[in-house]
Every structure is written in C-alpha cells, then in structure tokens.
Amino acid sequence: MGSCGTSCGQTVYSCLFEYDTPRIVLIKSRKVGLMNRLVQLAILAYVIGWVFVWQKGYQETDSVVSSVTTKVKGIALTNTSKLGLRIWDVADYVVPPQGENSVFIMTNMIITLNQTQGRCPEQLDKTTRCHSDADCEEGYTGIHSNGVQTGRCVVYDPANVTIKTCEVFAWCPVEDDDKVPQPAFLKAAENFTLLVKNNIWYPKFNFTKRNILPSINQTYLKNCTYHAETDPFCPIFRLGDMVEAAGQNFQEMAVEGGVMGLQINWKCDLDKPASRCVPKYTFRRIDNKDVAHTVSPGYNFRFAKYFRNADGVESRTLIKAYGIRFDIMVFGKAGKFNIIPTMINIGSGLALFGVATVLCDVIVLYFMKKKYYYREKKYKYVEDYELGVDKIYGSQSESPELRGDQ
C-alpha cells in the first residue's frame, strides 16, 4: 500500500511539475536525411499539385442557381382503324404543356373513345368474373375497379354469352389496358427535337449566363442539332440521339416509356474570360431498365379530354399515355481567386511539413538498429536546482543524468 502511494505520488508530481520541450538533434545519416526529403517532397507535390493546381485551393467557390424552360417540336402521322388518318402535333403529345425542369413526350397510348357515365360490364379478370348476381356485391369498389358494382352479373362479350362480369356504374365502355401497342404508336417521336433554355446565376460573384451562347444567332439556332463532337453547344436535341447517347434503344423505350436525364454541367473558372464558361451536356437513363426484375416498368399515366354534345350529354376520350419524361438537371460550381482560402491552404500545407519530422522520429527512435543511441541524444533530463538535487535522490549529490552516466 505504501509502495502504491509513493508511485502514485511520483506520478502526480511528474504531471504537475515536469515540462517537456522539443530538442533539436542533427542526425548525420544518409538514410534518415533522404527519407526526410522524400516525405517533404511528397507533401510539397500534394500541396502544389493537388490542392492549388487541381483543386484550385486559391479560389472561393459558389454553387449554381438555375432555371430551365423547354420547347418541343415535331409532327407525327398515324393511320389506324380506330382513329383513321391523323396528325399529331406538340399540343397532342406534350402533357402537360409546361413542366418544372422536365418535359413529358407521349410515345405510345391506349385510347378509349366516347366514354359516357352509365352501366356496363367491368373489365374481365379473375376478381370481376361472375356466374350469377350472388357473386357481385352492390356498392363494392375494388382497388383496381373502373366503377362501383351494381350487384348484377351481366354478359361481358356478346359473342360469348358464357363469359360474364359484374356490372359497374362507371365511364363506359371501361378501358381495356391489358395489351400495350407494339411498336409504339408515335414511333416517329424519335425525330422530335427538344430546345432547352437554361439560365444560370452565381450569386456570390454576381455572374449570369445562358446556354444559348452569345455566338449563337437566330439563323444558326433554327438549323443546328446537338452533337457531342461537331456541335457541342447547340441547345436543340434530337430525342433519338439523347436516348442513344445514354446507351438505350429509342423504339424499345418508346413502347412502355421511361425517364431520361439530361445533365447540364457548368464548371466555371471566373479567373479566366467569361467566354470559357460553357455548358457540358451528358445523358443517362434514370429509371430501372431491367424489365426482368421490375414489377412496373416504364412510365405512364392517364388523362382525358371532355366533350358535351347538343343534348348536354357529357362524354370523354380517355388516354393512357406511355412516354419518356426528360428531366433536366443542372449542376455547377464556379471559383474565383480570394486571399482568405489561399492563406488557409498555404498554412495547412506548411503544417503538413511537420508530418515529415514525426514520421522520421518514429522510424529513428523505434525501428533503426541504433535506436537506443538516438534516444540518448534525443532526450535529456534536467532537474530544477531550486528544489535541490538531494531532495529527490537522497544522499546522492548528482543525478545519473547530470553525471553523464546515460
């Protein structure tokens, strides 16, 4: 117990009344000297090459603020037994006419003409098929129902009176969406074009620009089409080219639809002329294209066009629209010289040079053959003469360190 108390007391005494100060020792060793210089050179290369040259650590940065508007152009001609010969223009296949940083272009559809509210057989499936009125519940509405059941079991197809379904009060005739048309109804959409107008602002630097560059005039804009190599700054994109650039097949994608990303990257060095701040366009498919592992592939929704005849009877045309939604995503960062980040990175770089000293000390003191010799030269113990040497070492007039015994 007394030994423990003495040891604890000495520990407390050492913590309170001993002070460590660095000691500079010049080690004349080719290995240690070369290692020290190599570490310093690596740190210098990191600070200059990575921090200042590559990452532009001397610049203050700001993130982009952006707005996007779009305009689609293109005409498609179809000729079907249900609709006959028909022209489709922008007002028909762009739904809704304007979106927020996105545009939907209809490429395929299931159309149900002249629906009116009334009573009719429900769409045939295993949950709606019946044999008698007892199989139908009046007032029942299922998750996938087209209307409210009336409680009657009626013939579904006059050509086969044995097939019956529950009658519903709904928009009749009900939609039959079991089979998606192939090929896509508006397969000509591959040649439609999309004009993207993008305005950006870096508020910290009060810098604004648009993707229709000053060098682009009205004549050029009417005739150009974007191409990554020959025309990289034209803001007009052919739909088929965008899908192909994302590694997809347009005609396959047009059948059930999908989501495409048009990415605009503004990386601007404002220490250089403003003319060198230009957009870079890339394309990728965002939705899951692996149909084998997707329960609900593609992209679709329904909308209707309503009519009222002379007798006041309301009718509608229901369209289940499949198509491609183009999401325009704008990224960007601008940088400009500022003394504050420059000084911070210079100070950080200088502080890193201390790593070379620490690394060399660890190797010299713990891994080299002469580590004990180097430790003797590295550390020196000095007593406070005000306390008196005899107070600590008893009858000894000198400590071993002062006598040079180490």
Automatic annotation (TrEMBL):
Transmembrane segments: 38-55, 346-368
Gene3D superfamilies according to UniProt: atp-gated p2x4 ion channel, atp-gated p2x4 ion channel domain
Subcellular location: Cell membrane; Lysosome membrane; Membrane
Reaction it catalyzes: Ca(2+)(in) = Ca(2+)(out); K(+)(in) = K(+)(out); Na(+)(in) = Na(+)(out)
Keywords: ATP-binding, Cell membrane, Disulfide bond, Glycoprotein, Ion channel, Ion transport, Ligand-gated ion channel, Lysosome, Membrane, Nucleotide-binding, Receptor, Transmembrane, Transmembrane helix, Transport
InterPro entries assigned: P2X4_purnocptor, P2X_extracellular_dom_sf, P2X_purnocptor, P2X_receptor, P2X_RECEPTOR_CS
Entry keyword annotation includes Zinc-finger: no
Major localisation: membrane
Top-level taxon in the UniProt lineage: Eukaryota
Membrane-topology annotation of the record: Multi-pass membrane protein
Coiled-coil parts of chain: none
Annotated function: ATP-gated nonselective transmembrane cation channel permeable to potassium, sodium and calcium. CTP, but not GTP or UTP, functions as a weak affinity agonist for P2RX4. Activated by extracellularly released ATP, it plays multiple role in immunity and central nervous system physiology. Could also function as an ATP-gated cation channel of lysosomal membranes.
Assembly behavior: Functional P2XRs are organized as homomeric and heteromeric trimers.
Official protein name in the record: P2X purinoceptor
Organism name: Pogona vitticeps (central bearded dragon)
Gene: P2RX4
